[in-house]
Design brief:
The complex is a heterodimer of chains A (610) and B (455).
Chain A: H1 3-68, H2 71-81, H3 93-101, E1 105-110, E2 115-118, E3 143-149, E4 152-165, E5 168-177, H4 180-185, E6 192-198, E7 209-211, E8 214-215, H5 223-231, E9 237-240, E10 250-258, E11 264-273, H6 275-325, H7 340-402, H8 404-436, E12 444-446, H9 448-465, E13 470-475, E14 483-485, H10 487-504, E15 509-517, E16 521-528, H11 535-540, H12 556-566, E17 570-575, E18 581-588, H13 591-604
Parallel strand pairs in A: 13-15
Antiparallel strand pairs in A: 1-2, 1-5, 3-4, 4-5, 6-7, 6-11, 7-8, 9-10, 10-11, 12-14, 15-16, 16-18, 17-18
Helix pairs in contact in A: 1-6, 6-7, 7-8, 9-10, 10-12
Chain B: H1 2-24, E1 31-35, H2 53-63, E2 68-70, E3 76-78, E4 81-86, E5 92-97, H3 111-121, E6 126-129, E7 133-137, H4 145-149, E8 158-160, E9 163-165, E10 170-176, E11 180-185, E12 198-202, H5 207-215, E13 221-224, H6 226-234, E14 238-252, H7 259-270, H8 274-281, E15 287-288, H9 295-298, H10 310-318, E16 326-329, H11 335-350, E17 355-358, E18 365-371, H12 377-388, H13 400-412, E19 416-428, E20 432-433, E21 449-450
Parallel strand pairs in B: 1-12, 1-13, 16-17, 16-18
Antiparallel strand pairs in B: 2-3, 4-5, 5-7, 6-7, 8-9, 10-11, 11-12, 13-19, 14-18, 14-19, 15-19, 20-21
Helix pairs in contact in B: 7-10
The chains are: A alpha+beta (610), B alpha+beta (455).
Amino acid sequence: MSFRRKLLLVFALTVFISVAAVGWIVSVLSRRAFERTSDDRTLALVKQFQREFARRGDDVVHRVEAIAASEPAAHMAVAVTRGAPDYGAYLSEAKSIADSQRLDFLEFVDGQGTIISSAHAPARFGYKESDLSLTQPISKDAYLKQENVPDGVVLGLFATRAIAIGDRSLYVIGGRRLDKDFLASLELPSGMRVLLYQNFGPAFSAQLLIDPSGTVEQADKLAPLIQAAQQKPGEPTEIIHWSSDPADNESMHALPLRGRDQQLVGVLLVGQSQRSYVELEHQITLVALLVGGAGILLAGLLSGWTAGRVTRPVEQLAQAARQVANGNWNTRVDLRSKDELGELAESFNQMTRELLEQRERLIQSERVAAWRELARRLAHELKNPLFPLQLTVENLLRARQQSPEVFEEMFQESTATLLAEIANLKSIIGRFSEFSRMPQPQLQQANANEIMQGVARLFEAQLRSQRAGITCTLDLDDRMPMIAADPDLLHRAISNLVLNAMDAMPEGGTLTLRTGHDGERVRLEICDTGTGLAPEECERLFTPYYTSKQHGTGLGLAIVQSVVSDHGGKISLESAPGRGSTFRIELPLNMDKLSATQSHAHAAKPASLI
Amino acid sequence: MRHFDLRLLAASSLVLVGLAHAARRPQYGGTLHVAIASTPSSLDPAALGQLDAVTCRNLSSLLFDTLVTMDDFGRIRPALALNWQAHPGNQRWQFRLRPGVAFDDGSLLTPGAVAASLRAGNPNWTIYALDDSIAIELNSPDPSLAAELTLPKNSIVKRLPGKVSGTGPFRVSDWQPAKKLVVAASEDYWGGRPFVNSVEITLGTSARDQMMLRELGKTDLIEIAPEQARRTAMEGRRVSESAALELVALVFTHQQPSPEDQKLLDALALSVDRAAIKNVLLQGGGDPAGGILPNWITGYEFLFSTEFNMVAAQQRRAEVPYAPAWTLSCDPADSLSRLIAERLALKAKDAGMTIRPISTGIGDLRLVRTSLVSVNPRVALTQVTAALGLPPPGLSGDNLEELYKSESALLESHRIIPLFHLPVNYGLSPAVKNWGEKRTGAWDLGEVWLGTEKP
């Protein structure tokens, strides 16, 4: 990752984390505020329900008292005192009185608890009213009760009064339903609603849950909360997830409703929608994202400006360093700055100047060294044939001074010697001339395996003719890629290495020609099982004119190195005394150079005249 | 002075007697106002089947005649047929028609018209129109054919597109389906012109509204629910009560009750406290029923049990390991049926059974009220079983013993539990005269005349 991107990332992360932290803190604070508000509203609604409940209860009490004080009730009470009442006469009495008093429930019960007339269950005449306790005092207040009606069980708010006639009593039990109409009468703030669960059994039933419109959709989702209210004391609260959208969540507060004996007859559920909070949270998140986005944009601009000030010079320096690493030591960094980056650039430029100067000096010294070595080698090579020349001419001079017969005898022999040595001199000079005229490689598609096989064929006869046999083994990789190379020069280089290997195995051995590749480079190995070389000999082996042999100019390996170097490759040697040697040539594929070369050649090719 | 007093006294007496006599003398004229709850949408007797049998018969008798009629004692009387003859085997009958009878459109009553009318309601009969009579051939012997011919569905009707025409004492002068029917007296009715000029019947009137109209003096004849009859009479109102004509029963809707079902139905029957229902819910009206047909028709109804025994009911229930909860459906518009159903459910609960009244749909049990169409027991039993979806009794004759066995078999099939036989009650204004109280609850509005009394 570049320095500019790192800078950008650091700035962006800084801004993002800051904005996220602020957004999270605001979100937490707003949630707490919302929850406090929600609790307050829930409490207010519960209190409103309790007030309405008490008001309704008082209303029921007043109506029942009015009925108990009415004339029809009094007549009925008198009739009861006279013995078993005529149920038929009072069959519709309770219903008509209940209708006039706008009560949903009304029963007249005699002193033994037998129903004389019932408004809501007329067929129950003669049955005992099981909810009336004749031994306990009657509650003055209204109370909640579950009442059996022909359609099932309903929840109602009841009051009981007694009419005493002598030692007998007639009980008036009246009430009103706690149903959806009661829920609808409650004034609810926006976003709140109230539900009523009629607790008619231990098992949850969705049909028992009502709201002001009647039945409740997805009532099963409230089952856990209702069951918690049924089983545990207190007023449980739960967040209900009505859908996958968090805005549809609702905070539900369960308020247990208890009857006279504290048995749970119903559960009032107060719900508060979370929509406003979720929307607020979304707004906060949106603002945070916008601010974060703006911050990241600002970070981008800042990093861009910073790059102009910091990263560009660094990149220039890095680019210059790469060029130096690639060999272009004449690189300069044009950076006019008075800070540390300017100093660094100036230091870099000075470093490259000194490197160039040192390289020049090194080159010159190497040239001088090379000339000295060449002169030394020439002197050494030429000295050998020149000494016999000198002796031969001196012998001829002495022989002529002594006698013509001795001179004649020596003249033929001496001239033969002179000619042989002159031919030797010519050979030495020819080899030097050849090395100085090493051509540049003509790159073309070449198959390294074919080159190796060509060399093996070339030396096949010679290897067989050796007094001590040398076995040539080919270990070629079938998947060798094509390379851009000069097949002739490579052939020559490998041939030189093969000759050296043969020279290293005077007693015979195994010559192995091996190829391989690793994708970007190919590998050519020439291995022998000869005498091997010592480490110090390995170091000097590629020096021109160095030879470990007693004869030879020492230019063979130099030619090999020159060819390998011209192909952009490298050559190495693994050897140890007594273990043979392995020359390893590594060459790049250079197919791109081949394309460029072919394009150049195509462009330079003169147009043919028709 | 003394002579003057005597003469004055005698003159006063004569005036009073005259007035009294005048009050009893039939008077022509006036409109009889009637209010009923039924809402017929057609006047064709064949389409009146959706009404209860009594109302159906009363309405159709205003406009149409049958070949024969039946009196309160089940005796066949001539009507459009002067006489009739059943060939041996009761498979071929011949009826000689009354001559000179005309439809209300003026066309004469002919054997062809009679045959066409009867064929419409009886496709299995082979009816021949002869010179002055018709012959009816049946697929199987039917000794009660004459009784069947008294049914409203066998009224003689001339059916024209969009119109029906009859030979009855009245003819239609205004017909608003399900709302109002006004009929005018037929001047040349073969049985004699009715006394009243017209009858105006307000349809679809609730019981409460009928009472209100009667109190306001706007109606002369209303229907009174059985549970209201006693109170109405105690209030000094004029009430006409028929014999027990309406059967209230529980019908088990499963076609083949299993042995367990039969035990539960036995327990249910034993849990029915008919006395309490009669005294309280029916306000003393009606009679507990153990049989399908009332005792005054069959004479043997008292042999069927109406026992209320909660202990026996509980024991019978205990013989069934698992008793499913049954639903009990009734007419939601009939408050009396609802009350009876609720009471039955309460008592069944005491016996250990769960019966749940429902207001919509068909339950496992149905509380039904059905009127008897005929005083003839064979015809009545056949019609009741057909109306309640029960298997036909399969009677071949009018033999009482066979009838008893057939009815017993129906009861033992556990498909029906008779509860009550209820009368049909009408409230009459003081102006209605010559109202012959019929055991069958039939209107004989052709014989009714209106006095001058105000309610």
